[in-house]
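User: Let's play a game. I give you a shape written as tokens, and you guess the letters that built it. Ready? Here's round one.
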């Protein structure tokens, strides 16, 4: 080996060893790009163990909230945020100018779909270009956003290497998919096992070490592609099984069988089954979206992911079925859709959260409004929503309101709703979540999905 090669090798190892040292002694400065439901909890966790964290958030209102110690993410404890901000361990920026100071840069930006259900990597690409402008030797870049296998190696790496720096020698690059179950009190950023993948040994070693500083169980895999595929599989697994429960419900509706009774009984099996239930549709920014990233990529290999497309098709049509079943219930009272007064309970996409992005409840409301119904909603976590270019405000759930409507639709099964009182006071209830099925009270006025 020539002297210059040896020198380069030593220099590269120097770069790696210096970063490793900084991570171990926690002097590494951590950048977190995107302070949303993934980035902010992650930033607080890193700051809590003594890393200096610089958040880069495009939304100045959010950046300002962080710097004032004001929380806006349900899974973050405001006191912890205040503490790390006051102690100077967490600061939010709105530009990438300080990227050179960062030793590790964690990307937690959205990966939505276009209207045609194809990947929209605009945020990831834009952020990668911004980082590339400031990239220097000795930095680790990790992507947390869920995406199709190949994004890190085929999209991000060329952009980051364009300035001449080389992955695995000058800088390090990995994928560690976020695993957040919003609202889950039991599994947090810290105790949820985390997969890390990188396509060169040093990137894998340094990224695994980085995540091990705050996460109890880190699972290294041999490439970024494997890590990307793991996450997309996890969410596809859920989308397909939720769709199976929804399809079973559609069949049981035809056969006049109570699907909730079927599923509750099936789930008494002590092995080989997992509880999934029908609902008004699939919301959030993961399950209805991520599987279509894999569906899109598979076409490049002349491969049709039938389960993914079918699951999406079934899940997307659930709000239409809810609307149809609502009209069937109203019809029993001789009430036409356009003359019906309907109260929808729950705007959020799942229970005990205030997040109504991609919520099926919103789609149901849109359909009911289009049919001319006089619609109000109640959601203790959602003060206002935009539906079909209209702003609707949360209606307090009083007995008078319950008694004033022709139909109550339970679209989200929030725990703090008094369902006994609702059943006692309402004329008719369509329960799309099965949340009333175990209540021991007269339920002649309740129809389950
Ligand atoms: N849903 C059903 N029936 C079910 C389960 C869920 O209709 O049996 C609906 C929910 O109401 C919701 C949607 O599907 O509208 C998604 O439900 P979810 O529980 O998957 O909720 P997310 O998207 O907030 O959380 C998921 C994580 N959930 C769990 O692991 C329980 C997980 O898939 C991912 O870690 C996470 O998204 C993510 O960030 O990818």
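Assistant: Ready! My guess for every position:
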């Amino acid at each position: 080996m020539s002297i210059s090669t040896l020198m380069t090798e030593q220099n590269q190892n120097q770069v790696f060893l210096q970063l490793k040292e900084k991570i171990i002694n926690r002097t590494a400065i951590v950048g977190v790009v995107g302070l949303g439901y993934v980035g902010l909890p992650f930033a607080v966790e890193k700051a809590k163990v003594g890393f200096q964290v610089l958040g880069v958030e495009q939304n100045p209102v959010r950046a300002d909230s962080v710097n004032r110690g004001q929380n806006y993410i349900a899974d973050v404890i405001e006191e912890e945020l205040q503490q790390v901000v006051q102690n100077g361990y967490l600061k939010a920026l709105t530009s990438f100018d300080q990227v050179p100071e960062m030793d590790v840069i964690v990307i937690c930006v959205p990966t939505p779909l276009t209207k045609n259900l194809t990947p929209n990597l605009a945020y990831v690409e834009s952020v990668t270009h911004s980082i590339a402008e400031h990239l220097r030797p000795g930095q680790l870049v990790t992507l947390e956003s869920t995406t199709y296998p190949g994004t890190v190696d085929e999209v991000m790496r060329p952009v980051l290497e364009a300035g001449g720096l080389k992955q695995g020698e000058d800088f390090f690059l990995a994928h560690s998919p976020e695993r957040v179950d919003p609202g889950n009190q039991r599994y947090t950023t810290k105790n949820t096992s985390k997969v890390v993948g990188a396509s060169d040994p040093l990137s894998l070693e340094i990224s695994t070490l980085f995540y091990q500083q705050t996460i109890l169980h880190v699972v290294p895999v041999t490439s970024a592609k494997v890590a990307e595929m793991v996450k997309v599989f996890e969410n596809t697994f859920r989308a397909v099984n939720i769709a199976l429960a929804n399809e079973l419900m559609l069949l049981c509706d035809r056969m006049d069988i109570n699907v909730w009774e079927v599923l509750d009984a099936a789930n008494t099996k002590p092995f080989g089954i997992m509880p999934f239930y029908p609902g008004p549709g699939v919301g959030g920014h993961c399950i209805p979206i991520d599987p279509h990233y894999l569906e899109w990529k598979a076409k490049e290999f002349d491969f049709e992911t039938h389960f993914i497309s079918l699951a999406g098709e079934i899940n997307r049509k659930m709000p239409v079925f809810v609307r149809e079943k609502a009209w069937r219930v109203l019809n029993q009272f001789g009430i036409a859709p356009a003359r019906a007064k309907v109260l929808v309970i729950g705007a959020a996409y799942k229970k005990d959260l205030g997040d109504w992005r991609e919520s099926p409840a919103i789609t149901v409301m849109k359909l009911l409004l289009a049919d001319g119904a006089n619609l109000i909603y109640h959601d203790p976590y959602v003060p206002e929503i935009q539906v079909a270019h209209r702003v609707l405000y949360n209606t307090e759930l009083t007995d008078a309101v319950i008694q004033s409507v022709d139909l109550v639709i339970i679209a989200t099964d929030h725990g703090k709703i008094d369902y006994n009182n609702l059943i006692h006071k309402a004329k008719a209830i369509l329960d799309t979540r099965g949340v009333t099925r175990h209540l021991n009270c007269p339920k002649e006025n309740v129809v389950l999905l």
